[in-house]
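Hey, resending since the last one bounced:
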Amino acid sequence: MGVRVLLIEDDETIAEPLGEGLRGYGLTVRHVPTGAEGLRGPYGDVVLLDLGLPDMDGIDVCRGIRRTSDVPVIILSARGEEADRVLGLELGADDYLAKPFSVRELVARIRAVHRRRGPARETPYEGEPERAAPGPLVVDRRTRQVWVGEEQVALTPKEFELLALLAEDAGAVYSRQQILDRVWDEHYDGPTRTLDVHVATLRRKLGEPGWIRTLRGVGFRLAVQTPEQGPPRGAA
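The structure tokens again:
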């Protein structure tokens, strides 16, 4: 069976061609126009969630889905402000794609989150044991590609820059301010919570929180892995 997608989008001029485009790539699409209908489920394998819904804010829909399900959620929105992206990711969304976007890119992201999370499960994701990363971590700055074992990991530009910075000197500790200066901007004055959200998302996408270690009150470092050690475990 192909990947089953629940599309929560109120604009028919967007939903209809988008659904047709996704079906053209072999995906099964069910469309609902309101947040209330979306929350009733079934969620399928991946949820595509618009933030600008007529009956409730998409952020509240994301929060409601996360109370009962670990299904991957990709937010689709014309609201590209950082605060919206951070809040969506903080509430458990797996990815965020700003409109307009190409169907090809969306399909790639759908397949990526579906591979990472696996088939939809009935029990919530929180509290379940973390899965070990399937192989070594490779960060290629030239092609801007990231691999864990044989699986390519799809990252946003900021996620890639953060991981690439830590990979410059694996094992070395980078302070929060160093990371904000290098990955964001030396004059960045936004919420520092943004960094924590990006780290949490990176850990989830890499499949094992132990890849990025936290030194409380100091910063973060990338775990050093040897073939004998196997994938790192734990995030502390």
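The helical segments are 12-24, 35-40, 58-68, 82-90, 103-117, 157-168, 176-184, 193-206.

Sorry for the duplicate.
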